[in-house]
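Sequence, structure tokens passed on for absentees:
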Amino acid sequence: MADFYTTTATHTGPEQFSVTNGTTTVTSDASFRPTELLLASLSSCILWTVVDFAERNAIELSGEASVTAAGTMTNRPRRMGEIRVELRLPRA
């Protein structure tokens, strides 16, 4: 059976919101824009998948692995027009 996940985002004030998964609540103000949180979510999801794959296949990741995501906003309609992702793995 597939895992099921749910989150709830709540607008709490000017440029402020909170997000909860029912266990943990994260609050944000003007320091992180929603588009940056989207990029952070994508980066962490990719990195989590890579690390999980390595662990399941006894692949040692000696050193620091990282994922950087960068995006461009477009207008009409306002949306992420482009997202670039860079995965950096430690050398074997």
Summary: The mean pLDDT is 90. The first strand starts at residue 8 and ends at 13. The beta strands are 8-13, 16-20, 25-28, 66-74, 79-88. The chain has two domains: 1-31, 32-92.
